[in-house]
Amino acid sequence: MADGKGGHQRIVPLSQRFFVSLAAYLSLERPEPAVDDHVFLVLKGPRRGHPLSAAGLDEIVSGARDRAGIEHLTCHQLRHTCFTRLREAGMALEAIQAQAGHRSIESTRIYLHLANDWLAGEYRRACEAIDAQAIGNDLGPHLGPDLGAR
After folding, report:
1. Residues 33, 87: one domain?
2. 112 or 69, which is more confident
3. CA–CA distance from 145 to each of 65, 112, 149 (Å)?
4. What is the pTM (predicted TM-score) of this model?
5. How far apart (Å, rounded) are the C-alpha atoms in residues 74 and 80?
6. Which of 7, 64, 88, 91 is the most exposed place for a label (fewest CB within 10 A)?
7. Does 65 fall in a domain?
8. Is residue 150 in a domain?
9. Residue 81: which domain range?
């Protein structure tokens, strides 16, 4: 459980990949000695070993953005990307809403920036499911007796 925006608690699921990455960070990069038991610490400079602040994280993202040649990137945009990728991977919109801590499903929808190829794939999948139902109901390529008479 973690306290999120507005002091609301939420469950933060963690993948096996997270633990592998965390173990590598702890054994290879985390500076010693640490001032306290925070996991993520400043890695260099006069504050080495002190807890990493939000401003410090923004500085790290800014440096990575510059090295990658990306014009604009923020931690908040990474949040949008994370939720978009979860949706594209098949996670239910309601589950993403809960994960994001949004009170409104509309807020969650605004967050998502779905790729056109994903949308096209979802449309094709739905059409195939509809076609399979129609064929299963012996409607085949025609509209059926009551629909064709109109």
Report:
1. no
2. 69
3. 60, 41, 6
4. 0.65
5. 10
6. 7
7. no
8. no
9. 74-141
Dist CA 40 CA 22 (whole Å)? 10
Task: Quickly state the pLDDT bin for 94 (edges 50, 70, 90).
Answer: very high
Q: Whole-angstrom Cα distance, residue 145 to residue 150? A: 9
Beta bridge mates, 10: 2
Distance CA 4, CA 91 (A): 21
> Number of structural domains, the chain?
2
Residue bearing tokens 């991977």: 89
| Residue 115 in tokens | 């790729």
Same domain, 48 and 98: no
Classify residue 36: in a domain, yes or no.
yes
| Helix, strand, or coil (residue 90) | coil
Q: Supply 46's token pair.
A: 């006069």
Scanning the chain, the segments in alpha helix (DSSP H) are 16-28, 54-68, 75-88, 93-100, 105-111, 116-136, 145-148
Q: Is the pLDDT of residue 147 over 70?
A: no
Residue 18 structure tokens: 């997270």
